[in-house]
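Can't attach files on this board, so I'm pasting raw text. These are the components:
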Amino acid sequence: MTAITDRPTTLEAPVDDARDVRIDVAALADQLLGPYADLRRQAREVAGRPEFQKIEGQPVPEHRERVLHQLRELAAHHDVLRAFPSRLGGADDHGGSLSRFEELVVADPSLQIKAGVQWGLFASAILHLGTADHHDRFLPAAMSVDVPGAFAMTETGHGSDVASIGTTATYDPATQEFVIHTPFRAAWKDYLGNAAQHATAAVVFAQLVTAGPEEPAVNHGVHAFYVPVRDASGAWMPGVGGEDDGLKGGLNGVDNGRLHFDQVRVPRSSLLNRYGDVAEDGTYSSPIASPGRRFFTMLGTLVQGRVSLDGAAANASKLALSIAVTYANQRRQFAGAGSDEVVLMDYGQHQRRLLPLIAETYASTFAHEELLAAFDAVFSGRGDTPEGREDLETLAATLKPTSTWHAMNTIQAAREACGGAGYLAENRLVGLHQDMDVYVTFEGDNTVLYQLVAKRLLTEYARSLKGAGAGDVARLVAGRAAGAALHRTPLIRAVQTLSDAGDARRSVGQLRDEAAQRELLTDRVESMVADLANSLRPAQKMAPAEAAALFNAHQHELIEAARAHAERVQWEAFTRGLAQVSDPATKQVLTWVRDLFGLQLIERHLAWYLINGRLSAGRARTVTSYIDRLLARLRPHAQDLVDAFGYGPEHLRAPIASGAEQERQDEARAHYRAQRASGQAPLPEKHIR
Amino acid sequence: MTAITDRPTTLEAPVDDARDVRIDVAALADQLLGPYADLRRQAREVAGRPEFQKIEGQPVPEHRERVLHQLRELAAHHDVLRAFPSRLGGADDHGGSLSRFEELVVADPSLQIKAGVQWGLFASAILHLGTADHHDRFLPAAMSVDVPGAFAMTETGHGSDVASIGTTATYDPATQEFVIHTPFRAAWKDYLGNAAQHATAAVVFAQLVTAGPEEPAVNHGVHAFYVPVRDASGAWMPGVGGEDDGLKGGLNGVDNGRLHFDQVRVPRSSLLNRYGDVAEDGTYSSPIASPGRRFFTMLGTLVQGRVSLDGAAANASKLALSIAVTYANQRRQFAGAGSDEVVLMDYGQHQRRLLPLIAETYASTFAHEELLAAFDAVFSGRGDTPEGREDLETLAATLKPTSTWHAMNTIQAAREACGGAGYLAENRLVGLHQDMDVYVTFEGDNTVLYQLVAKRLLTEYARSLKGAGAGDVARLVAGRAAGAALHRTPLIRAVQTLSDAGDARRSVGQLRDEAAQRELLTDRVESMVADLANSLRPAQKMAPAEAAALFNAHQHELIEAARAHAERVQWEAFTRGLAQVSDPATKQVLTWVRDLFGLQLIERHLAWYLINGRLSAGRARTVTSYIDRLLARLRPHAQDLVDAFGYGPEHLRAPIASGAEQERQDEARAHYRAQRASGQAPLPEKHIR
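---
Top answer:
Structure tokens for the assembled complex are below.
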């Protein structure tokens, strides 16, 4: 409830000589590469090789074959199996494996996703949902891509709601087999990478139905089964069928398709039985008693998909910004005050467009590093507690939507900033947008993930209320009531307005203050969650339909609360990353970048801060003016900031970012200079009147 | 300066029985088709034929040939030449021609753009920049597409800044020829439709250089020349060369390419000489003395490109929303309170995502109709005054960016709302996004156009100050000073806050009030322009470099002012369209749609209204709550609202909007119903514990 008015004032002299400081690009690049720097550098070296790169416009059949071949090459020679057990040739290195995997997006997002399907989903399901016997029997061929596999979870009728899939696996004790069956068209497996052409096996998710001796049939919920789908010649196995999903908006190097099963029988041992097993007589058993918790535990083992998409999205943003900023520092358009034309990056609007995206990409990168560390802690076993898993899943659900939507915005802004040249496939931006598009709806639709996050925030809030003593709750409630009352009166704002009027610089100083930014961002999430909890409280005493309607009426607010949380998480990660910078000049510039990130968040939600009495109108005005000052300060560092992303020409591969534009500009300027010098330049008509 | 507090209160009873009213879909569809309804219906009939439709994923060479063939078919049989002179087989019907042309986007945006290149640019340049002799010699073959033509204006080095192109046309009195020449690589013509393959001629824009007898060479600025570029066999004419632009982000049915000229000679009569001519002896003459005004007059004749993109963008938005809403009304995901799953369109977030886009599409449609009327008035000669032309150009520059960016947002939101199915090419949304992408940067980059609009707004503001008497100015200034003072004090807000607290419904009633919305939207533009004028005033006394820097520092605000203006223009057009509705139920629903449009604009800029004292915090809160109420009211009408766009299955052509999803849902529900009825349904595990 603290209004920013109460904070002590920081009176720093403004640093306006932004050109006097200079980023240590190499050191910053190292920091951004993080603890897996060496692995990432190796992965980038591979991603920069022509044989792994996307050929824009390659026909779909050739693209699919190319990517399959690339996958096998990676398996054979390029250290992509680190996540698998040492005894099978892996390195039990989960974080390191993902750090490399995320770089594949730079070569070709199709390669990243096909690798993700093969190793991150298909083989990982065998690893995490299966047991030693499955590892021995199925992992080696899945790792080497001798068996390309599909991850058959999603159905045409059910995307994000996996619990409701229609495919069944009914145990037949007479033959000790499971019968995999598709009961209707909506239960066809759909959108599965590898399914259209290459998969010879699939991990199939189905409702496990079994009856113990003398008992009725029970549905034990979704379980995974290893099912061969094609023979070596590529023909369907008996009872299995499917379709090609055909052309997609992008990622056409991945052969997405559909699968359906007509009473397909697989042995009892094909059940990946780590979290649930069926005995010969049909008796079901599980180490996790609650079917709900069991389901989420099984799905939770596959969180690495979301983790890696978060990292890949940040990398795609880096690529797009590197291309657009490099071009904007060479391209000139419209005459300036002198005889020369103005470089695009010098335009105020161009800075407004691109620099905040750079700031957000830094935030995304620092936040991803923390997600990767959390992932490695859990999957290495070092931090594998129920709380650790829960936190990891929440963090992945927080960051994956944020960074994938950011990548879409960034790539589109970059493409528009490059004008017609940005629309040519050779300059990469349109292809990158097309490929990244589906990242926002697969591996958990972003909207659905944000809802999960919001529910977790509400749970935590309820816990904090329960954990608090009676006195704390009273204070909390009183605090909120007082806050609500304050919203009604212009008291706080009145005081701020009057005090701000006196000294504009002082209020800017406060917003630049790290603690002030934190307070504003944190307060907003906490208030939104508390308000939501309050609004949803009546649901506890309502009939289900009424409660659902109440919840639905607040769905938009839930999603906005999750977004606010994500922004705070990214800001905190950025601030922690900033604390690690040792070079003073780099630290200075990066502090501006962090401030730009923080202030753009506050500007984005300025109406909320005003309505809720957290900022006065006078203070709110300074948000935008301080952003303007930051943009002017950061402009000279734009190239350094994207260069620190560490991608070379072999990664950018965009002619407009190759220096060709600079050459053309130089040639044109030399032509006019020579013409003027020769005295042969025709006079402009207006000069002769 | 009027704060909304001062308005009289409207106390209408809230209409909550939104299902009791029902849109007259057929009548609304007729209204949306506008005065050119019959022509549009015919054009939609053609656009719905398979032979004119895009084949998603067709290889580029085949796609290019297909579109060229379609173009010739259109010319021969489908009344696409209405804009041309009657004496040459046209109908001198400029508005009617565009209304048909805009529907081509529904068949294939490549067809729309190739048609735009051929008739809207190449042939139109001959028509509007040439004289009778050119019409007779060049128009028939351009109209019939016997001569496919390029519109060679843009250069690699200069996009929106046409005045700075490098290509020269130097008059040689000895041979009475112009020598067309490309002096350096950046002056290659680029991104030209038809240039890569099909064009046999081009209208080439070049700096006209000529010397009268005994006079020095003078550059008379950009003029247009008719230049043959390929012979009948497709080989380059002597001195002409070029390149294929290759694969693009979309629109790959158009063969964009580059052209360059090495001292290419064309006869003197190839100058399209309506606005500037060169006599045999090299003497230049023009009916327009000012080179600047001449340049803008010549470019102004080509405004129809922007007009038609505005209409096509609105149509693309309609298509995307028709697909997404139809699917969202059939698709179910996640269990609701009953046994059934919830239809997507019933989710609060889905309504928040799609319904405001429907409202904006209606606004865009009504505004486009007014633009088309203005265009027809000027080009028919009925309203062809300098002011009429200036207003038309400003309106086109206002609406084209607004509707093309809106189309991009809408198509992307529609694609995400359809999840994985939205990513399949067969469902049209990804292809539509890819094709429409370049609309935001071609025919005048959106950012550049908004700047033109802002400059016009500033000019009008300066005029209004000059036109006002001394007393008026004093009042104006005093009014602004008083306004500025009010911003500083919480007085207005304090009053509002206290009065609002008493009766929330009353304040909602005020925002629903048409006059209140108009006041808020209008006041914002006017204040932004006045503030800008004030900020930029010192530039008049500055050195050019300093003035340019000042202007640049306010570039973002200029663009935001233009955006605010565009929003107001759309809102006014919507409101005028609403006044034409006679059916009471339709009028009621459409009023909610207009209110949703108005309030979403106010919500988007809520911080501005709060900072500038136009809305109190209490009033601002009601904006969002009233939007929520409108969304709930409009939800039952979502399908009617998109059905009124009037596109049939032959236009949508998306399997997910074909009813197939409904069939799948019905089949699945029948399966479970039968299973439950038979008593064979396995028990859920949680039910047996």
